[in-house]
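EI: anyone free to look at a 355-residue chain?
SC: sure, send it
EI:
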Amino acid sequence: MVHNYSRNATDISHTPITVSVVGARGYTGLETVKQLLRHPFAKLTHAFATNDFSLNQFIQNKKITDVKCLPEKELMNNLTDVVFLATPAEASLKLAPEILKQGKKVIDLSGAFRLKKSDYVKWYGFTHEQNDLLQSATYGLVPFANFSANPLVANPGCYASSVLMALIPLIKKDLIQTETIVIDAKSGTTGGGKKAVENLLFTEVEGECLPYKIGKHQHLPEIIEAVEQFTGVNINPFFTTHLLPTRRGILSSLYMRVKPGVTTEQITEAYAQAYASNPLVFFAESDNQPQLLSLKKVVGTAHTHLSYHLKGDQLFLFSTIDNLMKGAASQAIENFNRLYDLPLETGLEDMEAFI
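SC: here you go
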């Protein structure tokens, strides 16, 4: 049986909250635009990109006639209540402080404000010059993030989201031997962005499943920091990322040993408690619900699918998400909902997988 715990939706009356997306031509930016267009309490008024463009080139939706498409240089003259930054980390680092100074909120989908302890030069290749904002930013992993009046939210990375949703409930309940964690994560090519680079060409990825950024992927320190933040436990896992010959989706396969005496029922209960009020997370033993292992069943949705099998003290744990949704755009919408005290699933319900 799949366990899916939801809370009752509440009647909420809000004046529409104006929103905009910077970097709207990229895969993540376009997906964020699509999700905002269907949100009942968000009014998407502007979309920005490096050069002149039209959303009609990418999206078939009558609502986009009300959205002004402008070059990024016009951003500061057209600020909205909330600005979603689907930009490279270096661009977010420059834009976020300027937007915040004008009293607006920022949800940053880049890695510019995720790492509070790790070296940005080592993991991102640039020097971070906004340490105060970095330290105060909310790391927006829903449902674990502790939201306050902070107007800057750092949206988690795609691999990190997949891994952390699987690990945090088990570590919080002290069920696993954290020194044994091995993470084998695989993503579709949209995770690499829209830029034209050789290793993302169809002829390069078709028929392949290549490891990349071995030992130096920027989501590794993010995972380590977030686990410590939400559980108080330090981990040092093996972590390898691979590129799948598909457009979308992440499958993270995690292997570890459980503490002596831990049962499947305890694992199920840990997830039940962690996601009791989250209708976007589904979990079950892999033998009972093998569809939770399928990328096709999650791509196109805001869902997280967790599947697990316990053999003696060996735990086989699998987490599947859409890298452009829970790994980016729909997670940003969850953070928007939390900022305005809306049910986290608002605007993300009734989404069917791309099957």
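EI: The chain is about 25% helix and 25% strand.
SC: 👍
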